[in-house]
Amino acid sequence: MHEASLMKGLMRQVEALAAAEGGRRVRHVAIWLGALSHFSPEHFTAHFVAAAAGTRAQGARLEITLSDDPSHPAAQDVVLESIEIEA
Amino acid sequence: MTTKTIKVNYLARVEGEGGLRVVVRNGVVTKAELSIFEPPRFFEAFLRGRAFSEAPDITARICGICPVAYQMSAVHAMEDALGVRVTGALRALRRLLYCGEWIESHALHIYLLHAPDFLGYAGAVDMAREHRALVETGLGLKQAGNAILTLLGGREVHPINVRVGGFYRMPSRRELAPLAERLERAREAALATVRWAAGLDFPERRHDYHFVALRHAAEYPFNEGRIVSSRGLDLSPAEFEDSFEEDHVERSTALHAHLKADGSSYLVGPLARYSLNFDRLSPLAQAAAREAGLGATCANPFQSIVVRAVEVLYACDEALRIIAAYEEPDHPSIPLTPRAGIGHAATEAPRGLLYHRYRLTEDGAIAEARIVPPTSQNQASIEADLKNFVGGWLDLPEEELRHRCEQTVRNYDPCISCSTHFLRLELDRG
Q1: pTM (predicted TM-score)
Q2: Residues in B touching A85 (Cβ below 8 Å)
């Protein structure tokens, strides 16, 4: 039930990074999903597409790595690994 | 075209289910707008086409803290549509189930969400380090409430034993006996809670509320009664939509309810219930309220923690009364015949009046559903409160100001109560 809120925080971070680097468009976003993050790649993608609409990240290609290690220190988290921007 | 890859390894965080925008001009708060970001859930839409009998189980999923309220409003509205009434011991068992929910829900809010605000902790886990006994009392009370839900509802969250017309299975007198022992101890803890809450430090803030709650001829209200108000409204639940309406505001996914006549705000919940029904509380609960320094009405939202404690005490008292008088009925439910019709009900969820309306087709399918929860009814009052109170806090550092705003929101125990720890504050000083 917190997906929308989590995605909002993530999009703010993506927007802030792109803006700081003078990027007009975000082309690629790499995400790492912890094994206990309560997200599947499909579920995450649906939320990402909705949250990205109308932002610099609209249409960005998503690359998602799904961890299967529940004992990973960040197993419950979603990590924004990198973004690729178009200046 | 140049591209650039930026490596960040940023941990995404839940950013908050609520936002508050305060506009200040010349030192005066001109606007306070509360927004809910939680996505809409469309329960009313996916009830359509389902059988009337499914409503209590579907609507229970709306909330994990107050599923009983949704079940109770649903079954009473369905029974209204089908032209039947549940009476006697089955009616009493429904009150008992509701007592359980008030106890667990109020104990959660008092001890785990509201108390840390008063004692200066970020949350109950921090508070437990120095106030272990306090947190244990809260959890013990919550457990007593949950025990009622488990016995009557089949499990403590989203009970499965409630049906239109009664229950699937009834408890025996023998099963209720250990529950009574537990509730006797809970009643003691509840009395101690009222005394403890009364000693907290309350800001002297009052608001000229328009209180709205159920009122019953003889009982403190749970499932039945007329919808009355401190300004003279007196309606049957079927007339709810003649006087109240919900609007969508663009900035929020929660609807905002108002009085139809003049668009004004009103308040539901413990303060309203207490202020309109003090004389219906048990003698023990009345005496505890008096001892705690409360009058027959209470309009200080910060004191809602005391009022909730009084209601927990009442719920323990009432649960014990119901258990003592319980005689097992012959059947766990009454027979029902599907028919076309419209049914309305309003019951008292822990957070306030919860209205349901259903239109059924001839075969008992739901053609239309309408649910008006307490949080949407209180949105306008929360904003009015913030607008009134924030003015006096503008000189505080931003962190402190945010905390005061969160506490003001939490006074109402809205559905976003837990999430307002992450309230995003946007202060526009012009």
Answers
A1: 0.86
A2: 3-6
